[in-house]
Automatic annotation (TrEMBL):
Quaternary structure and partners: Homodecamer; pentamer of dimers.
Cofactor: Mg(2+)
The reaction(s) this protein catalyses: (6R)-5,10-methylene-5,6,7,8-tetrahydrofolate + 3-methyl-2-oxobutanoate + H2O = 2-dehydropantoate + (6S)-5,6,7,8-tetrahydrofolate
Enzyme class label: transferase
E.C. number: 2.1.2.11
Cofactor binding remark: Binds 1 Mg(2+) ion per subunit.
Function statement: Catalyzes the reversible reaction in which hydroxymethyl group from 5,10-methylenetetrahydrofolate is transferred onto alpha-ketoisovalerate to form ketopantoate.
Keyword Cytoplasm: yes
Family: Belongs to the PanB family.
Annotated protein name in UniProt: 3-methyl-2-oxobutanoate hydroxymethyltransferase
Annotated 3-methyl-2-oxobutanoate binding sites: 48-49, 87, 117
Length: 289
């Protein structure tokens, strides 16, 4: 987007104060990021959801740090004027601090991310604090945490009872104290998301978390129905059906090649007059036709 200036964490926090909703979308490659930036998105998340969406895995667990660095770097090339957050993938921030710092450094230096995202609440707050103290902006993520899907028993709505609601509120407060600049709330009941948003001073970014959050994030491919076997999700609104257009376009291409309608005369290039005669001898082309 011409003239656009990337956000920073100070501006992002001020957007909550100004009641200016924050728009976030995932992107995993150069063209997606470029289109998102041109559309005016506030922030791009290079999510480890790329495992499900573009790598064909059935969860985010198999995604590696190398995967995240590779895709983050591509996104950064496509969206030079947009704030980019990249996920630390499964088990890359649960070992020693030295190991965690090495992984964070790779996302920032090689992946060109402006911030990293970490899943978890109070249990990871000390690690978050250390990373923030080292000068790295951190985006928190609570509620449904896909990296822990095997432990929590599947993709379940969070915050449905009082005990779970209190846990989520305390997790959010712990992350705020640790220094995160914002928190993603995933598949959290609307009432609890609104309560969290009211009780903390930093922005909340919802995905399936209702209308009380300070911003929203959706997956690029969900917004555009950009897949072959799209599965409807209650918390998603699709704004275009790109998948169908792509499939129809490729199908038409296949048909035109099979029927020799493509390439047509407009798509071919002609040599200078007499080139074939010079190559093969005068009259060669006519005798073989």
């Amino acid at each position: 987007m011409a003239g656009k200036q990337a956000l920073n964490i100070v501006k992002i926090k001020k957007m909550k104060q100004d009641a200016n909703p924050i728009t976030v979308i995932t992107a995993y490659d150069y063209p997606s990021a470029k289109l998102a930036e041109e559309a005016g998105i506030d922030m791009i998340l290079v999510g480890d959801s790329l495992g499900n969406v573009v790598l064909g895995y059935d969860s985010t667990v198999p995604v590696t740090l190398d995967d995240m660095v590779y895709h983050s770097r591509a996104v950064a090339r496509g969206a030079e004027h947009t704030f980019i957050v990249t996920d630390l993938p499964f088990m890359t921030y649960h070992g020693s601090l030295d190991e965690t710092f090495r992984n964070v450094r790779r996302l920032m230096q090689e992946g060109h991310a402006h911030a990293v995202k970490m899943e978890g609440g109070a249990e990871i707050a000390p690690t978050v604090h250390s990373i923030v103290q080292a000068g790295v902006p951190v985006l928190g993520h609570i509620g449904l945490t896909p990296q822990s899907v095997n432990q929590i028993g599947g993709y379940r709505i969070q915050g449905k009872d009082e005990k779970d609601a209190r846990r989520l509120i305390e997790d959010a407060k712990a992350l705020e104290r640790a220094g995160v600049f914002a928190i993603v709330l995933e598949l959290v009941t609307e009432e609890v998301s609104a309560a969290i948003s009211a009780e903390i001073s930093i922005p909340t970014i919802g995905i399936g978390a209702g209308r009380g959050c300070d911003g929203q994030v959706l997956v690029f491919h969900d917004v555009l129905k950009y897949t072959s076997d799209y599965r409807e999700k209650r918390f998603v609104k699709t704004y275009a059906n790109i998948g169908e257009q792509i499939r129809n376009g490729i199908s038409e291409y296949v048909n035109e090649v099979k029927t020799r309608a493509f390439p047509a005369e407009v798509h071919v290039f002609a040599a200078e007059e007499g080139v074939i005669d010079q190559l093969y001898g005068k009259g060669k082309a006519e005798s073989e036709s």
